[in-house]
Amino acid sequence: MVNVSRRTVLTSALAAGAGAVLAPHVASAAPAAAATALTLTGHDPVDLRWLEGGTPGALAAGATWGVPWARGALAPDQSFALTTASGEPAPVQSWPTGWWPDGSVKWTAHAVSEAAPRAETYRLAPGRPASPATAVTVRERGNQVVVDTGAIQVTFARNGKKIVKSIRRGDDVVAAAGRLVVSRQDKADTDDPQNLRYESFDGTVEDVTVEQSGPVRAVIKVEGKHAKGAREWLPFVLRFSLYAGSDGVRLVHTFMFDGDEDKDFIRAIGVKFSVPMRGELYDRHVRLAGADGGVLAEAVKGITGLRRDPGQAVRTAQVEGRALPDPATWDTRVTDRLHWIPDWGDYSLSQLTAHGFEIRKRTGTGHSWIRVDAGERAAGLAYVGTPSGGLAFGMRNFWQLHPTELEISGAAGDEAEATVWMWSPRAEAMDVRFYHDGMGQDTYAEQLDALEVTYEDYEPGFGTPYGVARTTELMFWALDATPTAQRFAELAEANSAPPLLMSGPEHMSSAGVFGSWSPVDRSTPAKAQLEDRLDAIHGYHVAQQEQRSWYGFWDYGDVMHSYDGDRHQWRYDVGGYAWDNSELSTDMWLWYHFLRTGDATAFRFAEAMTRHTGEVDVYHLGRWKGLGTRHNVLHWGDSAKQVRISNANYRRFYYFLTADERVGDLLHELVDSDRTYLVLNATRKIDGSTGEYDPDPSALPFGKTTDWGAVAGAWLTEWERGGDPKARERLLASARSIAALPNGWAQGETTYDLETAEFSSGAEPSVSVGSLGGVFGLIEVMTELLDLVEEPEVEARWVEFCRLYNATRDEQAEVTGEHWGNLNLRQSYSRATAYAAVRLEDHALAARAWQELRTGHAGYPDDHDWGTRRIEPPAVLRPVDEASFSTNASAMYGLATIQCLALVGDRL
């Protein structure tokens, strides 16, 4: 078969685009009707490599990834075969996650198990998949669901507090009573409280869904709430992934905060398993992963380092985690006195900051903890068990998401408890209260005046965390023996950075996904200069995360907004200049950088941002469900709640590249986010509305650029994924209605009809254009939409908007009746000019786009200082690098340069 690429950049799509028509809604099962009309071109094999390169020593139970395909290449029911580079078959499970409008498959997801042949590279091709030696199976019976991978059997309960009833290897229970635990207190530790009241809650199952059932991968979704007595709170969503032949279980854990921030201070939140302990105390082992592959190996009853030597063979066996020789072979001076050796049944590895962990142990409750060792950053994996097996348990991003802890208790008894604390009980209780008292900002006038100095849009009652969420990834391995130090280090590495297969930038670009971008190109000095600059701004922000310690449970993944050169510090404490919260499409810039480079560091950086911004910066419950929060000192602190932050355009990259079901949930949540404008007047401070908000659903104040671009991304993604056909209908109806306005996207005084998803205005042309309108995903979503559909009127009006934004006032007035005012962010809109140049085949516009980029209005001009300066103590707390970069300008420059290179790179 021939690899027919529809396009590498949008330029070559112009001729083909005229023939693209919308197909009827494609159901997620298999759009057979659409597929039968296709003339499929087929596709050559696609080369895959591990994201970090090389061959990983272990997988996180398995690996799941996404691959794009050119339009018209493959049918949606196409099967796939995976082989190593040497041709050895690797069992793979495949399913479609996205479709082109003609019904051909656009994105597929694939899963391989830990048991699959391991190699540095693989080839994925249309064909018949190899079957695993033992397929994973799912049985639903009564009040439980049983998943059998061939290596382990995991039983999930459909109700109650024991979410995982047991994990077995054959007849042996390795772990049981898997449950969620939360505790709270009613006052903050930092307030020096008296008479604290504590409560503990258990996760209670409300619903269990089998989302996949093999043959390579099974996924079990569990939903519920934490409960004690009559109170139920902190809703959770759990997804357990299990793979054929693997003894690992991956858990994606999400909880939503729905407490009272003034009374509900979470002391600890974790996942706990009971681990049966068999055999002698000297054959019970503990393993804890430190930093850089380090492993602490100990036993509950240690027989090394004693005054009397039991024998080298005995000592070596215990250190290596093997069963000790018959005690009859030991020195009797030890065996006769075993009862005098303490039994260390409790261990704790706590990571309370990003810069230090501590390991402690004790003989049991009621006795002091003894310090074992310490380090900087632990890998986040522990093990408790015996030579005949035990449980390895851990948390990804362990030190980045501090304060965390791994705890083993009761290992000297019949049953140990293994707990992953996502918020350690040894830390101060979680405090999510707003950071100031309002400072007298009781009226809109006062709030707007304060905005002028701190850039913070404050309003009483709006800085609430009610409805925000956090997702954490955990791993559990039910091992058949105490792992060697090398094997445990491999598992710890897989836990920290789960190996992921990925196709390269050239393939993804040739498939024509995600709009206007192209792989890195240094073929000319001018292009090489731009590539160097893109690397410089990206590398600077990656380095700043470490230098400024942008870590912590609620913070990890985000970056800061603006810099304070006087203090040599990001403005972490200045209102709206602190956390970025996706302002001006930072997420999108980072994902395009990865797509172009294929760089692992770029992927992990963007991945962490997606995990953060999609959960913490967005409301998932309550009256503002579906809205995100503008940049602030606290991620939920600003009163501007907007769809431009919850923006599906920022999350869809990660979903299609990894098939992550949790991010899929987030995308689906946003399909109806336009309905939030029934409960919140986003323009209340502009129009001075202080009374009861009673909007007309047929005439909502819903913006046709910033707002619509975000919701259009949700509709586009839902349509691509084969969801509700209404998403496609609303997407097209709204786009057509904007194009029908007298001045299209530039028209002023428009309203939105929630039922029809159509915009309207007066019959007379007017102009209202804001600089932020196109920079929250609107340009990118329109690029993708117009490549999917044949809508000449929509295209003409959009191209007109793109051409005129940076045009002269006379050119604007000639078309729309008046000029567009003093517009900002002109460098950012150079990519709009480039888009118009391609659509209009206008070389002068292409040259204008490059001139706009190089001039650098509200960004980085050609003569900008692209270097960094080292600032040393005592001017700063510790040595840091400083540069003339801001996150907004970097995101805008990055997106503009990437798209200009893809669209009009030949005119550079």
Describe the structure.
Keywords: Signal. It comes from Isoptericola halotolerans. Pfam families: PcRGLX_1st, PcRGLX_2nd, PcRGLX_3rd. This is Tat pathway signal sequence domain protein. Helix 20 runs parallel beside helix 22. The chain has 908 residues and is α+β, with helices and mostly antiparallel strands. The chain has a domain of 117 residues. It has a 20-stranded antiparallel β-sheet that branches. A 5-stranded antiparallel β-sheet has the order 4-3-7-1-28.
Task: Summarize the helices and strands and which ones pair or pack.
Layout: H1 13-17, H2 32-36, E1 46-50, E2 62-68, E3 80-84, E4 89-90, E5 93-99, E6 105-113, E7 121-126, E8 137-141, E9 144-148, E10 153-157, E11 164-169, E12 172-185, E13 198-213, E14 217-228, E15 231-243, E16 248-256, E17 265-276, E18 285-289, E19 295-299, H3 312-320, H4 332-335, E20 346-353, E21 356-362, E22 370-375, E23 381-386, E24 389-395, E25 404-409, E26 415-423, H5 444-454, E27 469-479, H6 485-496, E28 501-503, H7 505-510, H8 525-547, E29 563-564, E30 569-570, H9 586-597, H10 600-613, E31 628-629, E32 641-642, H11 643-646, H12 652-658, H13 661-669, H14 684-687, H15 706-720, H16 725-740, E33 751-753, E34 758-760, H17 778-788, H18 792-805, H19 809-816, H20 830-840, H21 843-855, E35 868-871, E36 880-883, H22 887-904
Antiparallel strand pairs: 1-7, 1-28, 2-6, 3-4, 3-7, 5-6, 8-9, 9-10, 10-11, 11-12, 12-13, 12-17, 13-14, 14-15, 15-16, 16-27, 17-26, 18-19, 18-23, 20-21, 20-25, 21-22, 23-24, 24-27, 25-26, 29-30, 31-32, 33-34, 35-36
Helix pairs in contact: 8-22, 9-10, 9-22, 15-16, 15-17, 16-18, 18-20, 20-21, 20-22, 21-22
Domain PcRGLX/YetA-like central beta-sandwich: 136-492
Keywords: Signal
InterPro entries: PcRGLX/YetA-like, PcRGLX/YetA_2nd, PcRGLX/YetA_3rd, PcRGLX_1st, TAT_signal
